[in-house]
Write a structure and sequence with these properties.
The protein is α/β, with parallel strands linked by helices. The protein contains ten helices and eight strands. Strands 7-5-6-4-1-2-3-8 form an eight-stranded mixed sheet, sandwiched between helices. It is elongated and about 90 Å long. Bound molecules: uridine-5'-diphosphate and magnesium ion (MG).
């Protein structure tokens, strides 16, 4: 019996590169015997010809399945949709821009056959990346691993192939604010890491701006750690402690030496300082509250406008709970 493999490919405005991606990956898949492959392309609300290209692929090749969103929901949602629509024993995820080199696929499949649950790529060098970006990225891994109880491997990429039970475990996490790097490591399972060099994008442009990456990092930290909430508590306690000590110092000084120059500058400083602290703490609470708000709304992580996959996953037709 051939093993079934679904390859999930999130695509957002990738019409420049899709043809090349499809031909390169198909070449590799043709060399892997003993597997029954399917593509699951997820069109994440592209505004270019991506959907037309996917429809054409599907018409010409019965291995091609696609899901098309009603608008752009982000890569996290695209990966989630791909996994929800997958049915195979092995499920892979790779970017459409060929930065995730498909040459690794045969080795990854072999690792799963050997008994590993996950075969995942890990970035070893950051040569293709700006200095500032890689410094931030390193700092991010330090911070998140300190603050949360999951241990996220530095440089771990979304590029991976997983066994069905791993996919089911990931799908069992219903959160709306999805931070895959955290989710992937939170579920555990035996992982074989593959060193993977950062390739240049084959065509098209990266969809990540610095501010998007910053939001993403914040999502990761807030999604997987409550330490920031505690930090605001500790800083609050420490600063009011300092306030009390300072008040005592002024009291004693006034008793010993009498009152001198009215302390208006120090009051202004204190107002700014404590005002700032209060706003920071409120901001941190606000970030959590905003996420709780989004979670309790139970909004779907994506909406499908068109797909050639039948039947659709069962739970999609369920009425909304709550
Ligand atoms: N992507 C997506 N939705 C988005 C942004 C990106 O599906 O909103 C896809 C994109 O088409 C690509 C992958 O996610 O296949 C990685 O995106 P990109 O290459 O822009 O990110 P980078 O490699 O620069 O981190
Ligand atoms: Mg890319």
């Amino acid at each position: 019996m051939k093993k079934t493999v679904d390859l999930v490919v999130p695509c957002f405005n990738e019409s420049d590169v899709l043809e090349l991606f499809y031909s390169e990956v198909s070449k590799i898949l043709d060399q892997c015997e003993g597997y029954n492959f399917h593509y699951i392309f997820v069109n994440d609300g592209s505004r270019d010809q991506t959907l037309d290209i996917l429809r054409r692929f599907a018409a010409e090749d019965s291995r091609v399945r696609y899901v098309s969103f009603s608008r752009n929901f982000g890569k996290e949602s695209a990966m989630l949709a791909g996994m929800k629509y997958s049915t195979a024993e092995y499920v892979g995820i790779l970017d459409a821009d060929l930065q995730h080199s498909p040459d690794l696929i045969p080795q990854m499949l072999a690792a799963l056959d050997e008994g590993y649950d996950i075969a995942a790529a890990r970035r070893v060098d950051r040569s293709g990346e700006g200095k500032v970006k890689s410094a931030f990225s390193r700092a991010f891994y330090k911070v998140i691993n300190r603050m949360s109880d999951v241990d996220i491997a530095e440089g771990a990429q979304d590029f991976r192939i997983m066994r069905r039970p791993v996919v089911e475990a990931i799908l069992s996490m219903p959160e709306y604010n999805r931070f895959s790097k955290g989710i992937f490591s939170w579920v555990g399972f035996r992982t074989k890491w593959f060193a993977h060099e950062n390739r240049e994008r084959a065509a098209g442009q990266s969809k990540w701006s610095f501010s998007k990456l910053f939001r993403y990092a914040l999502d990761g930290i807030i999604g997987f750690s409550t330490v920031p909430l505690k930090v605001s508590l500790y800083v609050g306690v420490a600063s009011s402690g300092i306030g009390v000590l300072y008040a005592l110092y002024i009291l004693i000084r006034t008793l010993l030496r009498g009152s001198d120059v009215p302390g208006y500058p120090s009051i202004i400083c204190a107002i700014f300082f404590f005002g700032g602290l209060i706003l920071c703490s409120l901001g941190i609470i606000g970030e959590y509250l905003a996420r709780i708000y989004m979670e309790v709304k139970h909004r779907p992580a994506f909406l499908v406008a068109e797909t050639n996959i039948i039947p659709e996953p069962a739970e999609k037709s369920e009425p909304a709970k709550g």
